[in-house]
Design goal:
single chain; alpha+beta; Barwin-like endoglucanases; 2 domains; two-stranded antiparallel ribbon; 2 helices; 8 strands; globular
Amino acid sequence: MKKLVYILPLLFVFFQQKDKVKTTTDAQKSGVKIVVDTIKKDTLKAVEKLEMYHKGAHASYYANRFNGRRTASGVRFSNKGLTCAHRKLPFGTKLKVTGVKTKKVVYVTVTDRGPFHKNRHIDLTKKAFDMIKPASYGGHIEVDIELVKK
């Protein structure tokens, strides 16, 4: 009887996680894309529409010296997050950034202003940049930027 008491919570956790995975894959099969909110990492949101914002934009990444500093939106910056800086888009805007060469995708949230270089369109965190960069790169890459509409 005692063994059963110990096993029941484990079974509950196992089946609960299995259901979450199943609902996510079912949603993806039905054509609805799932995006994890990068500020509140525990919530999933269904995305219905994507709007092309900029094709062939140049993206770079933040230097490590900015870790721990406050961004223009007031959030503390971390290179381990999935955020970005853009000159004009409002804070909290969700973006789908696709590497042109690699076709890899990352979803980021605008939390800062910049980049302050005339040829750059978006600054990504190091983690987001590493997710879409090609094997060889020179510190900036070409990306397509799409707005995530609710």
